Hints:
Order of helices and strands of chain A: EEEHEEEHHHEHEHEEHHEEEEEEHEE
Helix content of chain A: 25-40%
CATH architecture of the largest domain in chain B: Orthogonal Bundle
Radius of gyration of chain A: 24 Å
CATH superfamily of the largest domain in chain B: MetI-like
Number of helices of chain A: 9
Largest interface: A-B, 29 and 18 residues
Shape of chain B: globular
CATH superfamily of the largest domain in chain A: P-loop containing nucleotide triphosphate hydrolases
Number of strands of chain B: 0
Oligomer: heterodimer
Strand content of chain B: under 5%
CATH class of the largest domain in chain B: Mainly Alpha
Number of domains of chain B: 2
Largest sheet of chain B: none
Number of strands of chain A: 18
Distance between the termini of chain B: 43 Å
Number of helices of chain B: 14
Order of helices and strands of chain B: HHHHHHHHHHHHHH
Radius of gyration of chain B: 23 Å
Amino acid sequence: xxxxxxxxxxxxxxxxxxxxxxxxxxxxxxxxxxxxxxxxxxxxxxxxxxxxxxxxxxxxxxxxxxxxxxxxxxxxxxxxxxxxxxxxxxxxxxxxxxxxxxxxxxxxxxxxxxxxxxxxxxxxxxxxxxxxxxxxxxxxxxxxxxxxxxxxxxxxxxxxxxxxxxxxxxxxxxxxxxxxxxxxxxxxxxxxxxxxxxxxxxxxxxxxxxxxxxxxxxxxxxxxxxxxxxxxxxxxxxxxxxxxxxxxxxxxxxxxxxxxxxxxxxxxxxxxxxxxxxxxxxxxxxxxxxxxxxxxxxxxxxxxxxxxxxxxxxxxxxxxxxxxxx
Amino acid sequence: xxxxxxxxxxxxxxxxxxxxxxxxxxxxxxxxxxxxxxxxxxxxxxxxxxxxxxxxxxxxxxxxxxxxxxxxxxxxxxxxxxxxxxxxxxxxxxxxxxxxxxxxxxxxxxxxxxxxxxxxxxxxxxxxxxxxxxxxxxxxxxxxxxxxxxxxxxxxxxxxxxxxxxxxxxxxxxxxxxxxxxxxxxxxxxxxxxxxxxxxxxxxxxxxxxxxxxxxxxxxxxxxxxxxxxxxxxxxxxxxxxxxxxxxxxxxxxxxxxxxxxxxxxxxxxxxx
Lengths: 326, 273
């Protein structure tokens, strides 16, 4: 079960948004579609939700071919980046909307509807705000209403399009943790689109990294971070140095760099400290290679850096804890 | 004396003088002339059978024109804001055509098209349908002149509101008509009401286009503005002004409702924020 995507492709005018791709999204997991803007991640999500008609290929949700079904027939919940709440309806009416418009034989009774909406309001922690209008709520509250509204129709799949992008940092972190917790309680197959790699790492069971309309790598957060399969993934997931050595490109993470005062077999690359800045609990230093004019960005713990007792323009030898060649 | 105060006083004085001369004085004149020869003459004029028939024709015409314009206006505004198609800009320009063309010419177009010797005359003659010099012609002329009001108001309203809410409703399983009546209409209701009021005011007051197609048959094809002209030309000044006062009252009610709607709309927005 889950979502099976076969040979799905999409072109806007002459611009390829998605190259034919095959994908399986497992049941009950929280999958994150991660990529820079223009990578095709949102197009893929909207195609799954039925808001974008694919050019070719099929989409099967829980065994049902939904490729040509309308969004409403797919039993999905969709949460938009800008919430898209109904401005002329209260919180209660927004959440009840999906139930109210059902055909009579599927529509719950008045009392049951009220109970369901109120329990959803409780679940998204908006008790007491049911009679407010969207314009009277904060961004975080709006997004929780949007989520409750999507959950009200008991969807088989929850699709979230950059749900935290419009929120400030603090609220974003809170909501992230809260969505993670909600997902653990509901076990609903969920796909979340984001361009923020930290967000993906924090929230995902599985990450699908996309670029230029193609899937680059699929794996758990640990797998994609530790074993990136191509240069794009390596560079996208963290601060990266590309060090040119003997005709080869070595990919090194900023935090995989060590400094030494003496030259040795492992530490043979000579560099000069250009500048060092304290960022919270760590030091971010810029080094300039002695042999070629190339910058190296390195991150150290505060204690480590100060134990070396280095000052700007000091000469050092650099070694790498982990290097990746492609 | 401060220069800016002088300029301010001057501008206010000019504005007040202008409004008095061109708006308040005529308004006063209408009622003054209407009642000049006493209330008996006034009420005799407005209860005259021919006046009565003119009022009825105006109201019937408006009652037919408004719903048709509403339907056309919604379709046009929807098509322009929600779909991309060839020639859209030409279409938008064409909507404004009735604003640009003199109403008399609008009326003439229908005469040439549907009247005696007109392009489409044989078609209607076959079925024995009278269009020119009858209610259908008056309705067509009024329709033509008042068509732009509703799309002109609705296009910006629809553009401004975007279609995210409609998409959200779609994912929740709403069908097209449910989206239209439960999401779109409530979003644009004030713009719609405002447009209807403007359209209504213009439909009641239209003179030029209707004058050309009506044929001025007393008690049959005279609308209120046409009836006023006839009375005036026959030197029945008090009667002419009496019927005019009715139109004026209608216009004032329209303005009152319009400003009331603007107030409520503004209040709702402030309350909302």
